Request: fold
Amino acid sequence: MALADFLANLDALAAEAQAQFTAATDSAALEVARVAYLGAKAGKLRLAQKGLGKVDSGDKPAAGKRFNEVKTLLEAEFESAQERLTSGKSAVGEAFDVTLPGRRRRIGHLHPITQTIRSMKEIMGRLGFTAVEGPEIEDEWHNFEALNIPLVHPARDPLDNFYLESAQKLVAEATSPLLLRSQTSTVQIRVMEATPPPVRIISLGRVYRPDTADATHYPMFHQIEGLLVDRGVTMADLKSVLRLFCQSYFGGDDEVHIRFRPSFFPFTEPSVEVDMNWQGGWMEMGGAGMVDPNVLRAVGYDPEEVTGFAFGLGVERVCMRQHGITDIRALYQNDVRFLEQF
Ligand code: PHE
Reply:
């Protein structure tokens, strides 16, 4: 065979193969083209290679060189066609289909309890209450004694509380046993010890009780504590503040009513359970009352000069009612499918 014929045949084959690789719109079509031109047994390039043997012997080196160039070229063309198909670029060179919807990035959000805490702080802030923090590891004085809970009170039973013997060894200045606080009322004491009246604070945080977990109990939960001490403070002020708070948090267009039921806490007198009207019934929010004169005296206030109210509400309870959550444990299982709904 003359060299010119061999080369013409080779060039035609290369042009054809290139056209087919470029035209392939999916992997299946590309594979058909690959087998047709680059197939090891009966591909057209393989057949052309056989023709090499028939080229006049003096022309063989030139024919072989050209054959190798075309083979390398077509293999590269095939690879780039393959890349184009897997990367989604079309033959006409568009980078991507701009009409496809984008991939939405997963953005987290605040835990529902954190959301509730933030909006409670915001509402109470508008009512003039400053948010303060207190420690979760407390001494017996702040958790019990100063709150008028004497040694003989059942709440003092060490079996009923999380005492921390090892922590006590680490805190050199700890003079009384340490435990995880069972209520945020401890912060009332800490604030009054540090500040002369008037005081108007809230404190939000975790408290710990050795409760068995069920739909409404968990050994750790959150409370919002409120304390206002000033001249001439009455139960009416307590009720107004709680009503305004609930109205802002839940109310919307509905009018909120607050109901007091007689109760007992060692550090308030009188003491009440606080309910709020909710979907035709009453929803229990927590405890409250007028600060017991013994407590005022314990922190060096004069009960003849000032009076005060205090309240402690369950943050989970408020959050659960707001969202219709029926099991408190769901808040702490960190199941994103649950939490992302709120
Ligand atoms: N500390 C009480 C409790 O945890 C609630 C409370 C707070 C009651 C303030 C009265 C005043 O149950």
About this structure: The beta strands are 130-131, 137-139, 178-180, 199-208, 220-230, 258-265, 268-278, 281-291, 307-314. The first helix runs from residue 3 to 23. The chain has two domains: 3-94, 112-339. The pocket of phenylalanine is lined by residues 183, 185, 265, 268, 271, 286-289, 310-312 (CB under 6 Å).
